[in-house]
Design brief:
Bound molecules: flavin-adenine dinucleotide
Number of helices: 12
Largest sheet: 4 strands, antiparallel
CATH class of the largest domain: Mainly Alpha
Order of helices and strands: HHHHHHEEEEEEEHEEHHHHH
Shape: globular
Number of strands: 9
Length: 387
């Protein structure tokens, strides 16, 4: 019997543990954090103390040394309460392990919840088209000197160290992309908040670099096999993070569906429970079915990553379909609450705003489909060749 859809007892215990952490350390602050557009350090510290920021991290650095499936369980379960916390947890786990080269002391502090790291790639003309970045580093007097501007940077302000994608000069007179470690308090770094529609407590920043100096040994990913440059470093992380983004959206939608099912079993209109109308019950079961199917696909992607297999198909399929179907599910649930769902009093409007943000992180829905086109039809059908 090779095929096994069950989680182990230990994994089920982990799910219960994370659920308790979310209830005790996250749930009560959600409304306030959303309104203030800020998550307090005490909440991040709470995630660190519970070990959730270093689930797949090395034990010698304070991590738990678990695998991607366990991390998936953590993200799905946290997302049932809050997508921002799930995203912060996903970023800290994957950046510190799949983008090697951070200072070990920084990693220890991240796992304790005392520091955060982030990745700054996107620019005004380089969102989906990540190769088109214009932020550049020149070499001067034994330092890299960075100039440029990044946008949509998660956890800025807040993160202590950024991995910044830059074009660096090579010996043959050309340039290649690298990710350089840059302390966020380095002279010449500026940051302003870009107010968001959803996941407001996690914060997005516009980060400027004006003659920012970092040492020549600041490149991330140096010690990793098969990593030729910064682009390869980015690709190595995506097959995991895209499955996690799918599970973040799916966890969000499943929690909202569960709550809505309880609601339609009680709420009466025209003298009967609204759940007795098939125009109400059918969409609920349709969304639930899609969520369960996408969940399997996302966990299959993580399982392939654990086995060291290429999970590009599962990661991109689960992300585009999981996030799209989750947005539809939460929107549909909101309708079932009537006008109450549209008001701030109920949490469903926040959940809808939050889940929409997951359509962009780590690549848009269309970009996910382009990867599937590459996988199924071939690279030449992606239609991405530059003129
Ligand atoms: C919540 C959140 C967190 C984020 N965190 C980070 C972060 O930490 N670090 C970071 O660097 N960035 C981050 N981003 C930015 C994110 O990576 C980008 O939004 C994403 O890569 C898309 O880029 P863009 O928004 O500039 O869209 P664009 O690339 O400008 O695309 C615009 C639209 O055109 C579509 N499109 C473009 N080309 C094609 C094509 N060939 N075929 C079909 N459709 C196409 C896209 O799908 C999209 O709908 C974050 C964004 C969000 C919303």
């Amino acid at each position: 019997m090779a095929l096994d859809f069950g989680f182990t007892d230990k994994q089920e215990e982990l799910r219960e543990f994370v659920q308790k952490v979310a209830e005790s350390k996250v749930k009560q602050g959600l409304k306030e954090w959303d309104e203030k557009e800020e998550m307090p350090w005490s909440a991040i510290k709470g995630l660190g103390e519970a070990g959730l920021l270093g689930m797949i991290g090395l034990e010698k650095l304070g991590g738990k040394g678990l695998d991607y499936i366990s991390l998936g369980i953590v993200i799905e379960t946290l997302a049932r309460t809050d997508s921002s916390c799930a995203m912060i947890c996903s970023m800290q786990n994957t950046l510190t392990t799949l983008t090697p080269g951070w200072d070990e002391d920084d990693i220890r502090e991240v796992y304790k919840g005392n520091k955060l790291v982030c990745i700054a790639t996107s620019e005004e003309n380089a969102g989906s088209d990540v190769s088109n970045i214009s932020t550049a580093a020149t070499i001067d007097n034994g330092d890299y000197v960075i100039n440029g501007e990044k946008i949509h940077v998660s956890l800025m302000p807040g993160a202590s160290v950024m991995g910044v994608s830059v074009m660096v000069p090579t010996d043959d007179g050309k340039t290649r992309m690298e990710f350089l470690k840059v302390p966020s308090d380095a002279p010449g770094v500026s940051c302003e908040i870009m107010p968001e529609m959803g996941m407001r407590s996690h914060q997005l920043g516009r980060v400027g670099f004006k003659d920012v100096r970092v040492p020549l040994d600041s490149a991330l990913g140096k010690d990793r096999d098969n990593i030729k440059d910064g682009k390869a470093l980015m690709y190595a992380r995506w097959n995991v993070t895209r499955c996690l983004s799918a599970l973040n959206a799916i966890g969000t939608a499943l929690a909202v569906l569960d709550e809505t099912i309880e609601f339609v079993k009680k709420k009466e209109v025209y003298g009967r429970k609204i759940g007795m109308n098939q125009a109400v019950s059918f969409p609920l079961i349709e969304h639930y079915t899609k969520m369960e199917a996408c969940k399997l696909l996302a966990y299959k992607g993580l399982w392939k990553n654990v086995r060291g297999e290429d999970a590009a198909r599962e990661a991109t399929m689960s992300k585009w379909h999981g996030v799209t179907a989750a947005i539809e599910a939460v929107g549909s649930c909101l309708q079932m609450y009537g006008a109450s769902g549209y008001l701030k009093d109920l949490d469903v409007e926040r959940r809808l705003r939050d889940v929409m943000g997951l359509a962009f992180t780590g690549g848009t829905i269309n970009v996910m489909k382009l990867v599937v086109v590459r996988e199924l039809l071939g690279k030449e059908f992606m239609g991405l060749s530059r003129k």
